[in-house]
Amino acid sequence: MKIGILQFKPGKSIRSRKLPKDIKMLKAAVKELGHTPVVIREDRCQLYYTRNQPKILYNGKKFPKVDVIIPRFNALSNVSLKATIVNQLELLGFPIIQKYTSLVRAKNKLRTLQLLTSKNIPVPKTMIVRRFEYLDTAIKAVGDFPIIIKTPFGSLGKGVAIVETKRSLLSAFDMLLSSNDFNSLMIQEYVKESEGKDVRVFIVDGKIVAKMERDAEGRDFRSNMALGGSGKLVKLSKKERDISRDAAKALKLKIAGVDLLRSNHGPVVMEVNCNPGLEGITETTGIDVAKKIVEYAVKFAKYSSQ
Asked: Model's pTM, two decimal places?
């Protein structure tokens, strides 16, 4: 099979020819399983519309012929616009393992909260505010300082901060208000008992294929390994396993990284990632998660062709 790996590049790195580590890992897994990898760069795709027939070109030529596509969607802004390429591929009948609607939902933390709570999946106490006068209500609702503030979009720990005092919160809110992109702020409880730790559960096609506990580095409360956090092996309770699978299912994600916090009241879902990192969890667990993804992609392609 020819297996397409759809690479999205955020920001200034878009002109770089160097492949990210996760793309290299997927390429290696495709080759190991006896297939042919085809890396497709999103920035080299052109959407083309005639009077009655949409098309996708690649480098101004015919789009590569592939049997299935694995998208690595890492957009942090203009999410719906950047995901249009995924939607167009779906409309043209290309087998793609992550759907447009699922990717866009997962990238929007507010929408994620809506979907999780509608399925009775526990999340940290969170209030969304847009005006100064509602800050006191929000602080009281989530349980006083310290608190976590988040912007609706972001990953790898970006757009997330811990705030220790009301004065700091007011300063942060005032700064965000001056941004043209700002329209709401998520104020979330700080789960003190987690002590800068969380649990990453990696799910492929509804099955837990790997899991690890992540610990923040130094004084940083964010446990993301991309920010220097460390990982170690962890055992999950039945409730943690069930919640993780339910969270991925709620967002209709076939590939998901579910981040759990262990609170005194049981596990809560902090975040659901549609583009979970491959390197850290592979190094920590010894499990080739890229291979698990490719195996599912092959299965998906065979099912789609029937």
From this structure: 0.89
